[in-house]
Amino acid sequence: MLLRIFLTPQYRPDSSCAHQAIPYGFQVDTNYRCNTRKGLSAAKKAGGSILATFCRQNPSMRTLRHVILILILGAFALPLSYGAAALVLGLIPAPHRGPLPEHDRIPVYLISNGWHVWLALPLDQQAGRPGGETWREWLGQAPNPPGPETAAASYVAFGWGDRDFYLATRRPADLRPDLAIAALLGRGPAAMHVMHIPEPDRASGNSGQNRVRRLDVDMLQYHALAAYIRAGFDATPQGDPQPIAGAGFARNDAFYEAVGRYSPIRTCNEWIGAGLRAASLPAGWWTPFPFGLMNRS
Asked: Of all helices (H) and strands (E), which one includes residue 5?
């Protein structure tokens, strides 16, 4: 009876096969090559002997295959893990409280275009310092030459993000992969986007094509929120905001130098979420996407 055991990796037989000794009385015949039809025919003609021929892969090639497999699995696992973490932590509410009954309430708004969120505060409320100047006084009447958009402005909306990506990406259609990758790697400084706007439409929950969420906050929550936003500006030694010359999408908006760097962990929306959590306002534990901010009662 003839018994032959083959392992057949995808390598050329004359350069990547090696024969190994087999215990328990198996006879190893080194005259036959692995993984070839000639080896099979020769084994059949041998008769009366038990042959055990094993092919051993080249160690360096085997390591390379493992590395490539890990990279392929990682390319799928990392985005899935990131999305799962964002979904779970975005839906779990962080500690928060309602407005104190003895305080006046101030309406603030979250405005989302579906992929980015701005936080809108009243223009004539204090800019982060109780008893100090208002946002209108600190930022100025309008970032660019006044027009119809700024005449009715009573709110100022703030958004934070990577400077180069922000300035070049007004809409999702403007997305450039090279800028997106650079932003994810945290290679550039941040910028603050500031828009002078009318009070968002409270009745419909929408402002134009954007989705709106209203938050009624007390004075303590408001000052915590305003102080957080003001600290996001990269101000001069005198405490003044630094506008980026010539940057803006319309006559009612402008960009300012900001502190920090964008990353997959510290996204533009997570920057808003951190501010809400600092003011004890409803938000998810981690909010890299808008749903962790907008899907709240």
From this structure: strand 4-5
CB atoms inside a 10 Å sphere around CB 34 = 20
Per-residue pLDDT of 6-59, as tens digits, reads 334 444 444 444 444 444 444 444 444 444 444 545 544 554 444 444 444 566
Q: How many beta carbons lie within 10 A of that of residue 143, not counting itself?
A: 22
In terms of average pLDDT, the best of 42-46, 50-54, 127-131, 193-197 is 193-197
Ranges 201-210, 232-241, 285-294: which has the least confidence: 201-210
Which helix (H) or strand (E) segment is 221 a member of? helix 219-231
Under 8 Å between Cβ of 155 and 199: yes
Which residues does 185 contact at the CB level (< 8 Å), separation at least 6? Answer: 263
What percentage of the chain's residues is helix, strand, coil (to nearest 5)? 35, 20, 45
Distance CA 295, CA 297 (A): 7
